Amino acid sequence: MPDVTVRLEGISKRYRVQHGWYRSIRDASRDWFHRFWGPAGDSDVFWALRDITFDVERGDIVGLIGSNGAGKSTLLKILSRVTVPTRGTFFTRGRLGALIEIGAGFHPDLTGRENVYLNGALMGMGRREIDGKFDQIVAFAEVGRFIDTPVKHYSSGMQVRLGFSVAAHTDPDVLLIDEALAVGDAAFQARCLNRLAELKEQGRTIILVSHQMANVLHHSRKVLWLQGGQVRGYGDPESMVEQYLKSVREVHQQGSTSTAIGVERPVRIDHVTLVDRQGRSLPTFQHGGLVCIDIVFTILRPVIEPVFEVTFQDSHGYALGGLTSRLDKLKVDSRLERGTIRLTLDPILFLKGDYTINAHIRDRLIDRYYDVQKKAAILSVDGPSITSREVSGHVMYPHAWALVDCHERP
Questions:
Q1: At 258, is the pLDDT very low, low, confident or very high (cuts 50, 70, 90)?
Q2: Would you say 78 and 115 are in contact if contact means Cβ atoms under 8 Å apart?
């Protein structure tokens, strides 16, 4: 029989939509009527979770993925008993440690020291146990100098460091983490990852929410994919992440529209196309291959050397940098009425996925925008995927591994 540490059966969570801070007599009368003679209308409620059912076995590390608003944080709040489900049942076996919000469980007027004891007690630790671990908690969080300062004077980074440190040192049987690994500097994130590795070796159960698919793939043994408050999939990390990214790409492509600013702009972007070296439009381009980004423009009235810019975003809308024609000292003759400017990426360094291309035209002197085309095109790349676990991020850099200066020990 499997040793189940966390079980949810038919968990649903409903919130009532508030349309304003005030309430009229009509609103109160309607609520009173529905309370006795019928349910509130569907327009007044929002289901953050619907019929969530799954088990987590002891020692599992479950990555929880989904777009914003999918219900991930609500699910963790239910498991940590911050809120209660509208329907369904659940249980967690053993001591629970949770870091679901920055500063959750902290009282702003209490000092860091007092909050360590308060938060530790809320997580089931006795005073003697906290006494024995206090120095380790403070050292891990690196707030020793401010430990007797009220938490309301802490930065958000200091709060999350102290919160994670307390949660991780409770020796929890089940640890819930909501995007904590995205906060703090590189050194703190490394300590968090090392602590997670230690808990994994000890066979602790971890549920980790993250938008960083590399973290999810690296740490998870299973992945739960939520969408619209419902379970879309639960199983193998590579398969779940691949399906999730595919769904994000499909939604992103459906929403691809171009918008422009201003009606009196002197230079206009007509359209953006992606072609190969022979000018052929392709649905997909290969990693390591070549793509030409052609921007067709019209000059409506003379301007001095307009600057063209292309920026890239991933499927979640995060910026991945960009390039300008000024970088290569390319000058555009403003006496042209219509033309095409080409940006060639050779080789394509992006990993497998869909990338949004935004095109801009700016003034050379004061960086004023003449025209902005958001989601002007979608670059679909085939090749190595983040789900291979051999690469991370969105770019594979030209590289070569080698072992050098090897000397045999005497």
A1: very low
A2: no
Among 286, 281, 400, 283, CA closest to 351: 286
Q: Would you say residue 148 has pLDDT above 90?
A: yes
8 Å CB contact between 359 and 271: no
Q: How far apart are CA 284 and CA 382, in angstroms?
A: 7
Residue 284 vs residues 28, 129, 273, 280: alpha-carbon distances, Å? 56, 58, 13, 11
Q: Which domain holds residue 166?
A: 4-252
Q: How confident is the model at residue 101 (pLDDT cuts 50, 70, 90)?
A: low
Cβ-proximal residues to 385 (8 Å cutoff; 6+ apart), any chain: 242, 351, 352, 353
d(CA 236, CA 377): 32
Based on the fold, state whether residues 87 and 234 are members of the same structural domain.
Answer: yes
CA distances from 378 to 202, 246, 352 (A): 45, 14, 13
- Report CA 181 to chain centroid distance, whole Å: 11
CA–CA distance, 116 with 118 (Å, rounded to integer):
6
Residues 92 and 174 in one domain: yes
- Taking the C-alpha atoms of residue 174 and residue 138, their distance in angstroms, rounded to an integer, is 22
Cβ-contact 98, 78 below 8 angstroms: no
Pair (208, 289) in one structural domain: no
- Same structural domain for residues 279 and 168? no
Least confident of 2-16, 20-34, 78-92, 353-367: 20-34
Give residue 332's identity as a one-letter amino acid code. V
Task: State whether 165 and 291 are in the same domain.
Answer: no
Q: How far does CA 343 lie from the centroid of its chain?
A: 30
Instruction: Indicate whether 223 belongs to any domain.
Output: yes
Answer whether 357's CB lies under 8 Å from 310's CB: yes
Element (H, E) at 295: strand 291-299
Question: Does this model's pTM top 0.90?
Answer: no
Joined together, the tokens standing for residue 214 give: 């590399």
